[in-house]
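Hi R.,

Here's the chain you asked about this morning:
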Amino acid sequence: MKTQFLPHLGVCLGLWLACHDLWAQGVGSRGSERLINEPGPASRAGVPDWGVDQSFSQDIFTFVRIMYSTGGGGWGGRGGGGWRVDYPNADLNFSYRLEQLTSMKVHPDGGTLELTDDTLFDYPFIFIIDPRRLVFMDPEAKALSRYLLNGGFLMVDDFWGESMKTHFLSEMEKVFPDRKPVSLELSHPIFNAVFPLTL
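And here is the predicted structure, written out as tokens:
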């Protein structure tokens, strides 16, 4: 009886391993979205990992990428566009370099959030990328306004030309309808906080 069971067990294990490998490859290449409280990315893409002192696990910098809608009911460009540009590799690398080059304690995985997430205010820094089709719904605009007025910091990257800038600024008018953006000179302290940035 036992000898008949062993070949079947071998076939089952072989199928499980093959399916597991295919699943792992799909997760690693997909770059699927991940909320803050979920486990880290399936693949670190060669970026080193490091531990976090659990007694201070909430007292570290976490790179938070904002998932945003493109107005068509979608979450920003499938296939790597929209909020997913360079995700998760850029987030992992940024976090690693910040940990490596500064005295800050940094979460190794970072995370993704929607602007309406209740935990948004737990993170002083948020990041939006490739805003060419970004659309703020009313609750998102209100949440972002409240976040920024309470001291939160938003970094927006990956602009390509005046039309994208114009589109993004029109979306920011939903956030601050009574304010206009102001250009900062390179001499502003924000450009020299860690390393001097020059052109």
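One quick note: Confidence is low (pLDDT under 50) at residues 1-35, 75-80.

Cheers,
M.
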